[in-house]
Amino acid sequence: MKNVKVLGLLPVRSGSKGLPGKNIRPLLGKPLLTWSASALSESLRVTRKICCSDSEQMLALARDAGLSTPWIRPAELAGDESMIVDVLLHAIDRASKYFEETYDYAVIVQATSPTVTPNIIDGAIEFAVSSHADTVITGYEANSNHPSLMYQCKSNGEVQWLSSSQSYEARRQDFERVFVRTGVVYVVRVSSLLRNSSLYGEKVLSFPIAQEKAIAIDTEYDFRLAELIIKLDRRI
């Protein structure tokens, strides 16, 4: 890890159709984005820690949390149709020129993931480097939301199970282990990213995290759940 350079990116934009203004909405007294920005700022394995946003207010909040904000996110990369891979490619190009350095890996930390910790970020990076992965994603083990229990519902109400076998009849403890991908942290080898223009390279590995650390804020329920989990963590 000593000579490995890692670019840490917190991408955040002003638009949100589901919960307008959610990235700056207070969560237990702090704007939502501040939680993950602080976690990235406190990482020990990230060489350069930046936030890119189309909002001056969000950039200011990121700076207060310890991140660099060397540019404003272009409008063409801040719309509803914008792809995170394009945002990351742009950030790597700009950061390489601005800071005059090259990066071996890039890590994305989501502004909507307030339960992420520096240990999760550093653990995922260390795993990527030690295993020579092109991509490391975070995920948690499925339990009550196991795909064996999922089905599609036709217009007439008829159930069509997603699993082709009759695994829905099995005991839950007999289900095969399945993991749910989260967007909490992505670690990507820069050479793979540039070659494939994709977050997903040839060697994709999973870094499992606890489900309570995998919160992604999209709804009012997510806000309430995050508040409860953070409060419980503070009591432990």
Explain this structure to me?
The chain is α/β, with parallel strands linked by helices. It has a single domain (6-142, 178-235), classed as Spore Coat Polysaccharide Biosynthesis Protein SpsA, Chain A. The chain is built from six helices and ten strands, in the order βββαβααβαββββαβα. It has a six-stranded mixed beta sheet with strand order 4-1-5-9-6-10, with helices on both faces. It has a two-stranded antiparallel sheet with strand order 2-3. A two-stranded antiparallel ribbon has the order 7-8. Strand 2 (26-27) and strand 3 (30-31) form a beta hairpin. Helix 1 crosses helix 2. The longest helix is centred in the middle third of the chain and has 16 residues, at 84-99. The relative contact order is 0.18. The mean pLDDT is 91.
End-to-end CA span = 31 Å
Considering the protein shown, what is the CATH homologous superfamily?
Answer: Spore Coat Polysaccharide Biosynthesis Protein SpsA, Chain A
- Helix content, binned percent: 25-40%
Helix and strand composition category: alpha/beta
Strands side by side in the biggest sheet: 4-1-5-9-6-10
CATH architecture heading? Alpha-Beta Complex
**CATH topology name:** Spore Coat Polysaccharide Biosynthesis Protein SpsA, Chain A
- The figure for the number of domains is 1
Order of helices and strands: EEEHEHHEHEEEEHEH
Q: Helical region count? A: 6
Please provide the count of β strands.
10
Strand content is 15-25%
User: Would you identify the regions where 5 or more consecutive residues have pLDDT less than 50?
Assistant: none
